[in-house]
Amino acid sequence: MKYFAKVKYLGTGFHGFQVQPGLRTVQGELCSALRSVFGAECRVTGCSRTDAGVHANEFCITVDCGSATVPPEKLPVAVSRFLPNDLSLFYAETCSENFHPRYDVVSKEYVYHIANSRIYDPFLYGRAWFFPRPITDIAISEMNRAASYFLGKHDFFGFMSEGADNVTDTVRTIYHLSVERSVGLITVRVRGDGFLYNMVRIIVGTLIDVAMGKLSPQDIPGIISSRDRSRAGMTAPAEGLYLNKVNY
Predict the structure, then answer these.
(1) Residue 221: pLDDT band by 50, 70, 90 thresholds?
(2) Which domains does the chain have, with CATH numbers?
């Protein structure tokens, strides 16, 4: 039996999703918990990689435990007693043996939280980028103007960090990109057919440069077409980034 499941996790204590020798990872914790439930090794495949410190509200996986007999509706409860407090498997159903959580994705949505306040909020520690410099409502409008230039199909080579594994196609399509403010918390929401290594974090850093007046919204098309990483903004810190939703 093959399961399709959804998990959520607070990434602060993890070295990303994928198993790494000697390091605590989401995939490693899931495999350990599932082994305790089924009494056998299970293969866990994720919809994406996430870096150390990145969070997920809805990360999709498949679980293949061979001749598993646990009904899918009971799997979340069965596995919960073996998972740590910063990781939860909250939904499961059976799926086709041919289904792949990464290659069958239609779109992914990320959100990025920026704590824009002069005073640090300890309840947002590790969950938002603390950015004390004032971002005005006018700056938010400029960020949204800049965001509009990212929409559509582009070559985002200049918005990819070094270290990506064997990426030959750097063209991606962005369906939605917006910036909103609510009580000191700025949220950047981006949905696309896929993302390059650190692409969302670099987009956020570039939008912050627009807010600070270092770039203008009209600069964005030229930065994209240049394919020059040095012209885009900084890579925003990992702690503000959440994989929010995956669509199939």
Answers:
(1) very high
(2) 2-94 (3.30.70.580), 107-247 (3.30.70.660)
